[in-house]
Amino acid sequence: MDITLKKLRYAYPTGDDILKGIDLSISGTEPVAIIGQNGAGKTTIVKHFNGILRPKSGEVLIEGESIEQKTTAQWAKKVGYVFQNPDDQLFLESVRKEFTFGPKQIGMPQQEIEERLNWVAELVGLSDELEVHPFDLNATEKKFCTIGSIIMMNTSIVIFDEPTCGQDVNGNLRLRRIIQKLRDKGVLCIAISHDMKFVADNFERIIVLCQGEIILDGSADEVFSEVATLNKSFVTPPPITRVGQGAGFKKTVFTTEAFMKVFEEERR
């Protein structure tokens, strides 16, 4: 899967440019996180990946095809988008119906729907809630219901908008398993997140936006070592990383185990 942005600009009705000529290429299946302050343009940029938004100027290409060539409904077969607020996405009477609605709309064979239903329900932890009304689920379960409904579509790309909102530790671990399983199946996962620990733990590439421009793009080690640049977008590294940086570590650490290992190495 390949996404290419060429000189992408976008402006809301106020007239101010939200995205300011972005050039970007995302390919393969390595998970990608997009981070930055509120208003940096994170949600705006990913909404161009399936045609929810259209460029003011520049190009958005999905596997070499311009986003302008298809409707958002048509792009939904390739690009799945999980909204930040589950209530914006859920509208049917049961989890089962939420899961099967999209595949039916795109003509997925019934046998494939049933096979995917069992796999997806187990993956998102809702196998026992298929007959439950989505609005009777708790906040965490609602989130996984929306995630499941998108995974059911068997898209090549899945976009998660703030997936950790309202999640506890177990929810974050479930999200981690979902991202790993999707990557193993050749699906490109892209997430917008303010949770830097979640980002560092799960994403091999991190893109930092600031006022509609990309200011950093690299691995977690590379991005979170650039503290001064991150400050421009009001992003701070994960807590354990900040402690290591404050202690003067030469290596960037993201776990307690890594912290202790570097601590011992630098004492010698």
TrEMBL record:
SMART domains: AAA (SM00382)
Chain ranges of the ABC transporter domain: 3-236
Family annotation (Pfam families): ABC_tran (PF00005)
PROSITE patterns reported for this sequence: ABC_TRANSPORTER_2
Top-level taxon of the source organism: Bacteria
Entry keyword ATP-binding: yes
InterPro entries per UniProt: AAA+_ATPase, ABC_transporter-like_ATP-bd, ABC_transpr_CbiO/EcfA_su, ECF_ABC_transporter_ATP-bd, P-loop_NTPase
Cellular-component GO terms for this entry: ATP-binding cassette (ABC) transporter complex
Molecular function terms from GO: ATP binding; ATP hydrolysis activity; ATPase-coupled transmembrane transporter activity
Main location (coarse class): membrane
Key words, A-Z: ATP-binding, Cell membrane, Membrane, Nucleotide-binding, Translocase, Transport
CDD domains in UniProt: ABC_cobalt_CbiO_domain1
Family classification: Belongs to the ABC transporter superfamily.
Protein name, as recorded: ABC transporter
